[in-house]
Amino acid sequence: MSVLLAGGDRLGMMYGHLKEMGFTDFKHISGRKKNEWKKIDKKPDLCILFVNFASHNLAKLVRNECKKKNIPILCSERKWSHLKTKLISQGYST
């Protein structure tokens, strides 16, 4: 399952935790560079927006692009405990 991670500069152990949940392909955009979204070559299965590390412009861009491309979006804080709870409540647990 592929996932697009939006927001934040460094994600640390987030990749390992997501692998344990069954995600295999990762793409990260920090939002600091223009046109990062255009570099995404294939449609991810899920987009995770880290709201406490994303600007308003990045959040708006990600939401609009996900809506346009019919990609499910999950807004979360960049804490594993918070993200894990959200993923499980949305049915993404293994």
Based on Cα principal axes, name the global outline. Answer: globular
CATH topology: Rossmann fold
* N-to-C order of helices and strands: EHEEHEH
Secondary-structure-derived class: alpha/beta
CATH architecture: 3-Layer(aba) Sandwich
Describe this protein's structure.
It is a single chain. The protein has 94 residues and is of the alpha/beta class. The protein has a single domain, classed as Rossmann fold, CATH 3.40.50. It has a four-stranded parallel β-sheet with strand order 2-1-3-4, sandwiched between helices. It is globular, with a radius of gyration of 12 Å. The mean pLDDT is 86.
Give keywords.
single chain, 94 residues, alpha/beta, Rossmann fold, 3 helices, 4 strands, 33% helix, globular
Which secondary structure elements does this structure contain, and how are they paired or packed?
Blueprint: E1 2-6, H1 14-20, E2 25-29, E3 46-50, H2 56-69, E4 73-76, H3 80-89
Parallel strand pairs: 1-2, 1-3, 3-4
